[in-house]
C-alpha cells in the first residue's frame, strides 16, 4: 500500500529530518510509529499523503509515486488526522465540517448526507450534528476531526498523536475504535508517544531516532528489548518494568499487556500456593 | 512567508546592531521622508544604494535580500500599473519624464521603503525596540502590545502553514478555480488562524495576569538606553541626510534621464 524507498528529507531551513528511511506498509496493516521529539515521525507520515515530497528517494502509494500526483488525489486514499483539531475546524456546524472534505472530493449531495450520518454515528456525535464545533470540548473536537476524515472512507488513516489531551476512558474508546477500523480492513498508521497505548493495541511497531528507523517489527519484541528502547529514548510500559524487576522470581520479562500479566501472575501464585 | 523572514531579528553582534534603537528609528524616518519626497529616478537610486554599506556592516545581507525579494512582487505591481497608466494618461507622469522612467522610480521608491524598514527590524531586537518606546514615554501597555505582536508574527506564520497542511489533507486545493473561488479557498485557513490567535491571546492575558502584570505602576529597567559617540555620529549623519534631501528638493532642479542622454 505504502512503499518508502530510501527517503531523505531536508526542510528548507536546513534541518535534515529523514536520513535514508525505507519502509513498506501492506494493505490492512496496523502500524505505530514512535520515537523522540524531532526523530522524524511526523515528517515521515507527511510523506505518505504528499504534504512533503522526498528530497531524495521515493514514496509510492498504491504503486503511484507521490511526486506524480496531487495532494488532493492522494488525500482521497490517505486520510490524515492532525494532532490539533483546532488547526482544521472552521465550519458553523459539525455537519458542515464533515461535509467539507466530501465536497472537495466532489461527492454527490445525497452521498454526502449519507456519509455525514454514518461518520457522526460512528463516533457518537449524532447529537452534535447542528452544533458549532467551537462549542465542543477538546475530546469532542478531536472526534469531529476524526469523523471529518473517516467520512470519505480513505484506504489508509494516519493519526498524529491521537491520545494527547484524552482522558483514560476516551483513550480506551479510541483504542477499541482503531482496532475495530483495522479489523474491517483499513490500514491504520498512528504516530504517538504513548507507550501504554501502543502496548495495549499491539500493532506492528516502527521506532525512529534521529531521522532513521532503528527498529521495526513486533511491539512486544521491541518494547521489551531494553537496548532498542534506550536508543529511541523510550521508557517501556509500566507492566514491562514490573516484570523486569521480578525477573528473579523466574517470571518472563517480555510482558507488555495487562491481561497477559494478570494471567501469568495468577498462575505463579497458584503454583506457589500448591508448593506450600 | 519569505517576506517575514526578511524582518525577523537574529542575535548577531555588529556596530549596527549595537546602535541606539531610537537613532536607528530616526534614520528609518529620514529614509522614509526622503523616499516620499522624490519621484525622480536619480535620487531614488542614490537612496537605494546608500544603506547598502550598513547592511554589509551589520552582516544581514542574506535576510535583507530575502525581504527585497519578497517585496519584489508588490513592487512589480506598482511598476506595471504606473507604466500602463503613464501611457494611458500622460498627465499622470511628471513633466519631462518618460512613463518607463517614472514607473521605475516608483518601483524603486517602494524598495527603498521596504529596505530601510527591513534594516531596522533585522538589526533591532524586539527587547531593544520596546526599551526605546518605553524610554520615549510611550505607555507600557502600548509598548507591550506592540512587541507582543511582533513576537508572534513567526508563530502565526508557522501556524498558518500547519493549517494549510491540515486543509490540504482534506482535499482543499488553494490554486483551483477562478479569482473569487481562490479567495474563498482561504476561508478554511483564515478562520482557524483567527480563532486560534484570539484563543492564544486570552491564554496569554490570563498567564500574564497570574504573574501580576501591571502590578507596579512605575516600571524600572535593568538596561537603560544611553547614547554613545557612535550613536551621535549616526544621528548627525541622518540629520545631514535629511537637510540635504530637503535642500536638493527645493533648490536644485533634478535632471530627467532624457536630459542626461547625449542629444
Fold and architecture overview:
- The complex is a heterodimer of chains A (276) and B (263).
- Chain A has 3 domains: 1-62 and 156-234, 3-Layer(aba) Sandwich (Rossmann fold); 89-154, no CATH class; 237-276, no CATH class.
- Chain A has 11 helices and 10 strands.
- Chain A has helices at 41-48, 71-77, 94-104, 109-122, 138-150, 168-183, 195-201, 219-223, 226-231, 238-245, 258-275; strands at 2-10, 16-25, 30-35, 56-61, 64-65, 78-81, 156-160, 187-191, 204-209, 212-218.
- In chain A, strands 6-7-8-3-9-10 form a 6-stranded mixed sheet, sandwiched between helices. In chain A, strands 2-1-4-5 form a 4-stranded antiparallel sheet, covered by helices on one side.
- In chain A, helix 3 (94-104) packs across helix 4, helix 3 (94-104) runs parallel beside helix 5 and helix 4 (109-122) packs across helix 5 (138-150).
- The longest helix of chain A is centred in the last third of the chain and has 18 residues, at 258-275.
- Chain A is globular and about 70 Å long.
- Chain B starts with a helix and ends with a helix.
- Chain B folds into 2 domains: 1-124 and 227-263, no CATH class; 139-225, no CATH class.
- By secondary structure, chain B is mainly α.
- Chain B is built from 13 helices and no strands.
- In chain B, helix 3 (21-37) packs parallel to helix 12 (229-251) and helix 6 packs antiparallel against helix 7.
- Chains A and B meet through helix 2 and helix 3 of A and helix 9 and helix 11 of B.
Question: What layout of secondary structure does this protein have?
Answer:
The complex is a heterodimer of chains A (276) and B (263).
Chain A: E1 2-10, E2 16-25, E3 30-35, H1 41-48, E4 56-61, E5 64-65, H2 71-77, E6 78-81, H3 94-104, H4 109-122, H5 138-150, E7 156-160, H6 168-183, E8 187-191, H7 195-201, E9 204-209, E10 212-218, H8 219-223, H9 226-231, H10 238-245, H11 258-275
Parallel strand pairs in A: 3-8, 3-9, 6-7, 7-8
Antiparallel strand pairs in A: 1-2, 1-4, 4-5, 9-10
Helix pairs in contact in A: 3-4, 3-5, 4-5
Chain B: H1 2-5, H2 15-18, H3 21-37, H4 41-49, H5 52-58, H6 61-88, H7 99-123, H8 126-135, H9 140-168, H10 179-185, H11 187-210, H12 229-251, H13 257-260
